[in-house]
Amino acid sequence: MMMKKSTLLVFAVLFSFFVRAQNDFPVRGLAIAAPDRENVDRFVTFINEELAPRNINTLILRVDYNFKYKTHPELAQENGLSQADVDKMVAACQKHGIAIIPQVNLLGHQSWHSTLGKLLQVYPEFDETPGIQLPENYEWPNEDDLYCKSYCPLHPGVHKVVFEVMDEIVAAFKADAFHAGMDEVFYIGHEDCPRCQGRDKAELFAGELTKIRNHLALKNKRLWIWGDRLIDGKTTGIGLWEASYNNTYRAIDMIPKDVMICDWHYERPDPTAVYFAMKGLDVATSPWRNTPVALQQKQMMLDLRANATPEMKAHFTGIVQTVWSGAGGFLDRFYTESEEDSDAKCFKALFVKE
């Protein structure tokens, strides 16, 4: 006996809903540098015409010092974003239910190869390793094990400055969360630091993370970080970039459980999301520009959510694509038809436009 067309239509709708639900995540995100002022309107168009139709609900913006801070104008970039610029992006995101999470790199990434970041330019006393000079021509590896500088987490003046910056940028973006970075911290507990030398690196890392988290919690804001320093790079074989060789990984058992982890892996779909979830931490997998690997990471997260216990499933939150160029460069790639694999092509594959 043939089914009525109305019955078939109902089944089709239910099946479509089921498929969509199976491919849905609580967190569908993009992490990218905040645009410079010249690209703000272009980026707002991208939010309206591309992020929203792809059901993106989380936008992590690396602001750092690309903002006209009032609490610390000495740290603001000369042509930093104004509050009016920020308001345009916030309004677009609010219109589409997209949560903006501003990021300022804390602890690590206070320099880039041969250039000091703004914090250590203005406050050189915060430098964990002032005796290590940035080379004119950077190479890795090097005798000083220099990748990026860190600030000293035990310096008595550092938190007044970074917390005021953090509070201002969270308020400026009307955000409920803040991303502190905290990835690739190679300099911590350095032997030449009069405050940190001889101290346990895991305790130092956990202590700094907890201070940041507790400060945010006072205003009901949540801390997000990259997860690499909490993974044992030697035991896992993941290495010193996407995981830790300096023992900070033990900090995972010393930190609050409400910290959100962005678990980045770019060349292999390492299944470390399970590790974070089993430690009671929420986690999103974070690819970059390797599309086949990114699609494997997405499928792995879908499988984990489909097969986990209710307790574990709650921790597998979804996927956050990363972009490590300026926003303008990404938009150029996004709107250019190219067969070459890139962060833009990867983004389109992960988040299909509806």
From TrEMBL:
The organism's taxonomic lineage, starting at the top: Bacteria, Pseudomonadati, Bacteroidota, Cytophagia, Cytophagales
UniProt key word Plastid: no
GO biological process: carbohydrate metabolic process
Official protein name in the record: Glycoside hydrolase family 20 catalytic domain-containing protein
GO molecular function terms noted in the UniProt entry: beta-N-acetylhexosaminidase activity
Organism, as annotated: Persicitalea jodogahamensis
Signal peptide interval: 1-21
Ranges of residues in domain Glycoside hydrolase family 20 catalytic: 79-290
One Pfam short name: Glyco_hydro_20
